[in-house]
Amino acid sequence: MFLPLLLGAVAASGQATQILEGRTIQRIDFEPATQPLPRDELDRLLPLHVGNPLHQADVRQSLQKLFDTGRFADVAIDAEAMGEGVVLRVSTQLNYFVGGVTFEGVADPPNRNQLLTATKLELGAPFNESQLKQSIDSLQERLRANGLHRATIRYDLDRNPSTEEVGVRFQLNAGPRARFDGVNLTGTFDRPADKIIRATRYRRGIAFIQFPGWSLATEDRVQAGLERVRKDFQNQNRLQVKVTLDRLDYHDKTNTVTPTILIDSGPLVEVQTSGAKVSQGKLRQLIPIFQERAVDRGLLLEGTRNLVDYFQSQGYFDAAVDFDEESPTPGVQRITYAVTRNARHRMVGVEITGNRFFDTATVRERLAVREAGKLRNRYGRYSQKLRDNDRNAILDLYRSNGFRDVQVAATTLDDYRGRTDELGVRYEIEEGVQWTVGELAIEGASPEDTAHLREIIQSAAGQAFSEANIAADRDLILGYFFDSGYPDATFDWAQTPSGVPNQANLHYNVKPGERQFVRNVLVRGLETTRPNVVSSRILIRPGDPISQGRIGETQQRLYNLAIFSKVQTALQDPDGKEESKYVLFQLDEAAKYSFNVGVGAELARIGGGVENLDSPAGTTGFSPRVSAGINRLNFLGRARTLSLQTLASTLEQRAVLSYLMPEFRGNENLTLTVSALFDRANDVRTFAAQRMEAGIQLAQRLSRANSVQYRFAYRRVTVNSLAIEPLLVPLLSQPVRVGLLSMSFINDRRDNPTDSHRGIYNTVDAGIALPQFGSQTDYTRLVFRNSTYHPLTREVVLARTLQFGYIQRLGGLAEIPLGERFFAGGSSSQRAFPDNQAGPRDPVTGFPLGGNAYLFHSTELRFPLFGENIGGVLFHDMGNVYSSIDQISFRFHQNSNQDFNYMVHAVGFGIRYKTPVGPIRVDLSYGPNSPRFVGFSGTRDELLQCNPNAANNPGFCVGVPQRINVFQFHFSLGQTF
Question: Quick one: which of 119, 138, 6 has its CA closest to 61?
């Protein structure tokens, strides 16, 4: 488009410049006076300057340079005599660029992102109004595909000459969505038509339940129906079935559509094996034709490899598999895999010799060949392919560290150590001499850049010389220049002998190219959000070099606010040759409200206790639960969230209202939360409590590993039902107000918080309740935890944790109330107990009273068990809840049925099943010294009438000796610690 314009401009101005050739340029005027490029940039760009003679070659070059910027649709240069000199007038016509695309009247589906993709209008790209016809046609196609056949589309353009932006706003009038009115079936198939139509689920209904009438027609629903029909045939082993939408007829009078589905059912595919038996279920896992729903030679060959791997995992390391296809009857395709298992072996030895630079453990980490285990990989992992891959992995390890002449021999050892059914593999390494870098020269970069580059690259004088390091250096160097505003930077390298054996000199040649800067940052799309919320999170400013790294980081920071559904970034006119460019951010605000609903249940030693006092240690119970919540995002346009979360179960009813302020006061490391809580809980069987609490918390991230939380909470706890006589413990049961100021420090250096294999996790929480905070009971509270994780082998981890807490009364009430005491025991602290059953107990009923101190220590040996997803755990827990810190004891034995200040132990075994959100955990524990205590047989009313010292003492006043069951079962999600 620019070439004819340029030729025309040159022709128009050529006659005048020829006549005035050689005259001195007196003045250069631009028309219009306001240009998209600053005047100083134009002066640097053009070879025409005031005081210089006028040359036609300079005019042509000036026109070319102006067009190359991409900013101009047309340019003309006119010359006019002025005395002995000449005046130049540069006339320009601006180009416009896409500044943002918005939609009004969207009837999802299609959603805004689908509509935006259909327009093919890219942010920052050159804009021509003629493009909009194609955009509207594409939008209409998307709307019709979703049943919106009566939709109309209009558009408005908002041109901004100062930034050369065009905002495109499409106004959609979607109209009513069409419904299905039936299904036409064509092609070859042997299933009843009504069953096929039912499989589409185009009729109204839920899952497989259909109601009278037809559903609304959407693109996703049409495609889902085709896929269901396809799967229906494939489940009958018609793997090559073809199900396509032949046409979708629209009836304007009734606003309905009739899909016509073309079906070719294909042959019935039978897969079997000979020479070894493999179940059909296993074949469906191993042969990819069942997953890909297609039959071709590539997939069948992949099936042979999968079968070979399967048999090799069973110890048949020399297994061979081939396949054959036949059609025994018309319409049937039979695939037979011929399996030759050969002898069975166990891989029992992996030997590594000759390694001096790397220790054996480092080399073993790269190996896929595995020795046989006791439970997992009973026959080990071995094949010639795995062995050869391991050899290449060892070669890569050494070559990347400068051993250019390394040699590795991989040998299979039959009859390993004299056993005919056992194999071994020996990797013999000849390291050779390590090559090093003699001198490193960096050319083409400034001294400042060179100094920085030498700090970040891997190659340096005396370091290992390898092409892997050079490739890494290339990425680092180009990344540095790209982030410094040099989009056209290039890198090349060469090596020369250094004169020292096994040493080479390196020469890096860098060509940065022209540097580009930020002209301005343009933010578009804000409706509710306040501009300062976004501007405070933008890391790139006018005049800065264009850094894609900072642009990407800004995009991530805006996404982290959780108030934008999409954040687009672009450079305006990215291909234009100009010194500075506009950086564009197009923001789509997310929906203001979000909802969540959840259903679950708890199965454990739970249940009531406030009426029937027979089971103070708990009985197996079932508690269903329902949770629901509503969130108001971007409250007041400040990127803050107001939320209400509720939970209801037979054990607990809870409502939490919270106001979350991330990046408080513009600091990305600060988060302020204000909350109000109402909670009625029966989870501690001794009592049911009602808690009303208001709190405020400021969380500060100090570093990647360290964070601090500052909190103040004011609460009122009312014990509204007791499993013990209130007169026996009057101070423990009365309502109490607590104002608590606390602080937590968290140090988290784990490799994976959901399933840690190495690292350290420390937390310290300290708080104080004082009358000055409105507290009726005065105390200090300290809770400490230390967890460490030690990998013993590649897959075996030794994990341990120590938990300690104590409460020290300072004044106020004579005792720490029940609602403020420590209640512990269960799956996350001490598995010898059911949940919240550790520690002191009521001497009459045997129900737990909680304590003012606790000490727990747990050790786990975590190891793989079966396959890739199932692991095992051997554990030992020790600890208890104590009446006070001075009563903490490591004593093993319980002195009496009223003695609970001793160390309870538990040993056991657990199973872990990996899931994306953490392992599902099942633990079985044995507590050899679980507590004995005296309980009460009867109801709470009988307890109130009971007088053990009366002459006519009824039988139910007699204490009943009981004990925490020595076997405990725990089921939960996530690792213990």
Answer: 6
